[in-house]
Design a protein that fits this description.
Length: about 210
């Protein structure tokens, strides 16, 4: 019986099949419209009253680069809005970040809350770390007036071995082992370079427009 039903469907007039196809296409278009996100303007722009510890972060020009000072501690970028905003998406136009943490200021707790810690993809076929040009963070929903990027590693940082580290050195590891019958002890120290970001973009979601 099901075979007969299938035959009758396959023998349907062409105009009916076309109508069914158009209906299905219209349904897909409607579904796509429902899934469309109506993003707000970029909150992290000086044109909308945002401020930052590096002006190039919020000038809307990805050709400019914000850089932390040499030997800055910590290496971080902070963007502040004129009033609290509900944040749903963050985009970072990267220059040399490799490992970093994005946080937002929680006014109720008076503390920074971690949004995402990022270890970028790297080109394993290259002797040098690749630079991922863009990071997009979605699936977030919080209210804040400040976003912070705290940088722990850039692609330009160097790791060196020292037999006797200086008091100001950032030690990654203390190695103690025997190699070829010889006892070895040294410290792996990171030599930091300035962190650089081209642009930070922060968006909310606007209500969907309803047709009257």
């Amino acid at each position: 019986m099901s075979f007969g039903t299938a035959r009758r469907r396959s023998n349907a007039p062409s105009h009916i099949l076309l109508a069914m196809l158009l209906a299905a296409t219209a349904g897909c278009a409607s579904f796509s419209t429902l899934l469309h996100t109506n993003w707000s303007e970029n909150y992290a722009l000086d044109a909308y009253g945002a401020t930052a510890n590096h002006e190039a972060l919020i000038d809307g020009k990805p050709t400019t680069v914000a850089s932390t000072p040499v030997k800055a501690d910590p290496r971080e970028f902070v963007v502040q809005f004129p009033e609290p905003k509900r944040v749903r998406r963050i985009r970072i136009v990267n220059h040399n970040l490799y490992r970093f943490t994005v946080s937002y200021w929680d006014a109720e707790r008076s503390d920074w809350q971690v949004v995402k810690t990022v270890w970028q993809r790297r080109d394993v076929d290259s002797f040098e770390r690749s630079i991922q040009p863009l990071f997009t963070i979605t699936g977030i929903n919080f209210v804040t007036d400040r976003i912070r990027i705290a940088v722990s590693r850039t692609v330009e940082d160097q790791i060196v071995n020292k037999l006797a580290p200086d008091p100001s050195d950032k030690i990654l590891d203390h190695v103690q082992r025997t190699v070829g019958g010889t006892w070895m002890e040294f410290w792996r120290v990171i030599v930091e370079s300035p962190a650089r970001v081209r642009e930070v973009e922060v968006y909310g979601v606007l209500p969907r427009e309803t047709k009257s």
